[in-house]
Write a structure and sequence with these properties.
132 residues, five-stranded mixed sheet, 3 helices, elongated
Length: 132
């Protein structure tokens, strides 16, 4: 007895293609909106006048209430920050350093960072405050 094989045609359902495209679009939009900047929760001090700086080429040093230091949102110590500043200055001398301290941070903690910058003779420094 001879068996005859029937060829099956595979049909791609096009009804769901628009749904898949829509879900991909939503996924891409959500991923592109994610902010990868690390921040430390602090209360910004207020200032009467403030000057806006560009967000590009910034190095952020965070100082919290207990004096802990963060470099671009990652915990660090003063010697590691000093080495990173030296490396950054050699690569791009016009990099601006932003010192971001909590409102209740004693000034002695901020002053340690400022003294390090003074020893390094780094002059492009900003203290970040909240505009009133």
């Amino acid at each position: 007895m001879k068996l005859v094989r029937q060829r099956k045609r595979f049909i791609v359902p096009l009804n769901s293609m628009s749904d898949v495209a829509f879900l991909l679009l939503i996924f891409i939009m959500l991923v592109s909106l994610i902010n990868y900047r690390r921040e430390v929760r602090i209360e910004y001090p207020e200032a009467d006048t403030a000057k806006k700086t560009s967000e590009e080429k910034n190095l952020e040093i965070w100082v919290d209430r207990i004096g802990a230091l963060y470099l671009d949102g990652l915990p660090s110590d003063l010697s590691a920050i000093e080495n990173h500043i030296i490396d950054t200055y050699q690569e791009a001398p016009d990099t601006r350093i932003h010192i971001i301290a909590d409102r209740d941070t004693p000034f002695e903690y901020v002053n340690r960072v400022l003294q390090t910058l003074q020893i390094l003779q780094y002059r492009v420094v900003s203290l970040v405050v909240k505009d009133r």
